[in-house]
From TrEMBL:
InterPro entries: TPR-like_helical_dom_sf, TPR_rpt, Ycf3/AcsC/BcsC/TPR_MFPF. This is TPR-repeat-containing protein. The keyword Cell inner membrane does not apply. Keywords: Repeat, TPR repeat. It comes from Methanobacterium formicicum (strain DSM 3637 / PP1).
Amino acid sequence: MYVDVGDLNLALKDYNKALEYNPENVGLFFDKGTVLFYLGEYDKAIHSYEKFLSREPRDVDALYFNGLAYHFLGKNKTAQKLIDEALTLIEKSDDLYPDLCNAKGEILFDLESYPDAIDYFNKAVESDPASFIALYNTGRAFYEMGELKYALKYIEDALKIEPKEWDVLNYKGLILMDMGVNEDAIECFDKIIKLHPIYFPAWYNKGVALKQLGRTEEALDHFDQAIKLLLDKKPGMTRGMCLKSSK
């Protein structure tokens, strides 16, 4: 309930209080772990999930979320073990199957096993053709392999499902830049800026595309805007750093 309404901190307090009164209710550890997961407290989420899994080792949802938590911490070998275990316990017809396949693909992507990652992303799409994230991830994997035409195809398929998704639009722009189609890339970045003007990668990437077209002053204006949006995260960012990294 709390995850749906977004009041995660209140939920965490309530689950902690419930566990004080009823520490044997193992389901509370799963619920607490999920709240911690959505708060980005992955180490603490893992601790809670593993208490739950010590009593319910075949629970697919817990294996999935625990695997994702390890993945987000960069601990991909452990993440892969958990996701693989979940996949052995689930039918292909289960609603969670495409999510598990996508998670396995993302782990393989991070391990730079791109062809294997694509196999799992394809399994996710076969199970759920509306899974734009699996299509997007397939495009990313082809991009890393230098297969730009295939990458563009899958990114465009993802955009047919979610035409306003910023990260997908940004990736399309990056692919178009690598293909030398800078004007079309700029159109993608402009769409993002219109939809979500605080998305700094769009400002930076548009600056790079403008610089490649020789429109240096316009590029500098966009780098300046990207810097303003980045100052809280990287206070030392300068125009020169943008120009250097865009070469």
